[in-house]
Amino acid sequence: IICLVSAAAALDFKYHHTEELEKYLKGVHAAFPSLTHLYSIGRSVEGRDLWVLVLGRFPTHHKIGIPEFKYVANMHGDETVGREILLHLIDFLVTSYGHDPVITRLLNNTRVHIMPTMNPDGFEATKVPDCFYTRGRYNKNGEDLNRNFPDAFENNSASIQPETRAVMDWIKNETFVLSANLHGGALVASYTFDNGNPVTGSLNGYSKSPDDDVFIHLAKTYSSNHASMYKGMGCDNRQTFPGGITNGYSWYQLEGGMQDYNYVWGQCFEITLELSCCKYPPADQLEKFWRDNKVALIEYIKQVHLGVKGQVTDKNGNPIPNAIVEAKGRPHVCPYRTNEQGEYFLLLLPGTYVINATVPGFKSMLKTLEIPDNTGNFSALKQDFSFPEVSDKIRSRVASCPKIPLYQELTRASAAAKPTIHILVLMAVMLVIFK
């Protein structure tokens, strides 16, 4: 046991290539088997595992009421700082658990998934580190993985890569609530949308999501707890970011990005963290990068406990999957729905909200809630919904989610099933014809 703990703790501030990274993750899991779970979500083009280490009180499976969180790094193979600081985050969490009361409570109430590298092939292909650009940015097939996801505003013609498909399946199979993907080449926290159209405000140079206030809060949480990101100086005189944050579209338009995909199809709020002006800095700077980001990484995880959570059940107390639960005035083109356990998680800032729970085909239930800031208590406000007219013998229809939502319905009042404006116009025309 002593040897295992020593192996897990032997993490130097250097770059860890594939074999070293795998050895370290396996060593941590062997040393802390009750706190961690190690698994691969798939393989890269060249066959390298896409490893994920889970940390939490119940690491092997989802537990009702405990939200799922994830960090993903090294999506661009030549952007390397995130890859290493996530290894040091793992080291800090496992060695602090049971000793630091904040970390202990955090891991007792959160299931944290950490993927140090999404693009191991690109990292290994980067033979000569460079601050600005190398071919290692792309995967082995020469594809930019952060332009490779289905897009919420236009049809992305890029061929979906094995790494992208693995992450899409991962998002589909877990109930992720909050996420961040770690990049390099700038110093800023960027938030959705990365793409847009006139409905989301693109004509004004800003693509606004229905949860824009929450995204601004999330980005500010990271930047304000970072050693220097909050200053907003960027990396040169040509680029400044007030408060150290930016709307993705306002910075530059991006099609097929991972953070928009998480939000639209995964019901997971994700931001993009640019952590270093130099994409692949010298190894002797890694310790400073860890110190600069340590507090921000922890404070950001805590935000998974914002808002409200609960279960939707039938008259017999059985969970109802695919029930729509959303805050009024915050509709999503792909309605936010309950998982197989009937659970929902909505990230909301403190305030008064009307929560609309709908089992398609049945009357909606509305609850007015005063939502506090419970991040310090590591638990969002709990509000369950019970539908007495629904039983497990009644199969409700599943709310549809378009494969290519174009965000042309954001002005609708609710995500619950309602006639669209097109249907209303058609009805009016038919009425005139019949008259």
From TrEMBL:
KW Protease (keyword) present: yes
GO BP term (any one): peptide metabolic process
Domain of life per record: Eukaryota
Active site: 274
Cleaved signal peptide residues: none
Molecular function, one GO term: metallocarboxypeptidase activity
Keywords: Carboxypeptidase, Glycoprotein, Hydrolase, Protease
Stated name of the protein: CBPM Carboxypeptidase
Gene symbol of the encoding locus: Cpm
